[in-house]
Amino acid sequence: MSDLENKKLPTVEQVEEIMEDWGKFSVEEFAVRFQLEKEVIYATVEYLHKLKRTSDERSIPVLACYRNDKLESIVRCAGARHGYM
Q1: How far is CA 41 from CA 10, 23, 62, 67, in A?
Q2: DSSP label at 69?
Q3: What is d(CA 80, CA 37) in angstroms, rounded to the nearest whole number?
Q4: What does the radius of gyration of the chain's CA atoms come to, in whole angstroms?
Q5: Per-residue model confidence (pLDDT) at position 63
Q6: Which has the closest alpha carbon to 15: 73, 64, 78?
Q7: Low-confidence residues of the chain, pLDDT below 50?
Q8: CA distance linking residue 3 with residue 12, whole number of Å
Q9: Whole-prediction pTM value?
């Protein structure tokens, strides 16, 4: 992952919108829409691709949505809300 230190990161809700609208909008459009750098959108999508679908959403630990200020943890939280870990 590229160095995202000191860059504005998306919110969990914005990551959920990227998940829902991927394919409808380009990286550039998401960047403008959320006022983020394209590099951050690319990194977000890269983390989303690493998530795995769970067969039982109830099996996702509550701590999956414990967030710090890292992009990976924000993406993990958004994914957990939709059955991904």
Answers
A1: 8, 13, 26, 18
A2: S
A3: 24
A4: 13
A5: 62
A6: 78
A7: 1
A8: 20
A9: 0.85
